[in-house]
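User: I'm curious what two different proteins look like when written out as structure tokens. Can you demonstrate?

Assistant: Sure. I'll show them one after the other, since each token string lines up with its own sequence. Here's the first protein:
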Amino acid sequence: MGIFIMKEGKAKDKKADKKGDKKPRKDNNKEMIKEYTVNLHKRLFKMQFKKRGKRAIRELKKFAQTQMWVKDVRIDSELNHFIWKNGIRDVPNKVRIRVSKKKNQDEDAKEPFFCLVQHLDVEDFSGLRTETPKQQ
């Protein structure tokens, strides 16, 4: 059942082929910084108006968790102010953020790393890509 025949006539095992194709895992235990453009419009589509501001913050936290593999995500006050500046209903369609993964200095912390999400002020979103800025 686990063997199939190739066109050249060589038999190959499916299970062995699947095991050999694994990619090396990323090292998630290091500090890093990345810049992203997040499209909030598609994440808040068909969302009730009175829940958009809170949902936008929740979606940014969820985005940072998936990108940095960290459960502890902290939103900077400038980013919070940028999301809420037009009220609960008028959330910006796009936002440029810098996500920094840092070591947790607190001794009794549950997680070894935390993630800080900061706002980057840009005039135009065209041509922006995900970047890893050079550290000083």
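Here's a second, unrelated protein for contrast:
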Amino acid sequence: AVVSTQSTGKHHLEHAIALNPRDATALTLLGIWYMEMAELSWYSRKFAATFLGKVPESTHEEALKCFLQSEEVAPRSWNRNVYLIGRMYYRLENRIKAREYLELVLSLPNIIADDTEIDEDAADLYRKLG
């Protein structure tokens, strides 16, 4: 049911973006949808397909595109989005860009409670870059 409701969520996010292409939050959330679908394990994908039918396909490139659009619309307004750009570059094996965005998010002030967790995740991923 989670994948089924995810597809509905994607539809609503796409509709929100069609109404307001400068909605940075909707762009980030759509990017998260693409990322979550791209990162579904083989087992989860097969399980969902068995009980729900076709599971939506997605890529890290699609997620990155949404995160970059959100950052263009509202630069540095949400630390999570900046972190997710770095994470997608890491997944796509672009270490230079990953390092750039992870350094950026680590330099941003922590405004909301979520930012502290993002700093920890960014620091962990940054260490993996070596």
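A detail about the second structure: Residues 2-19 form the longest helix (18 residues).
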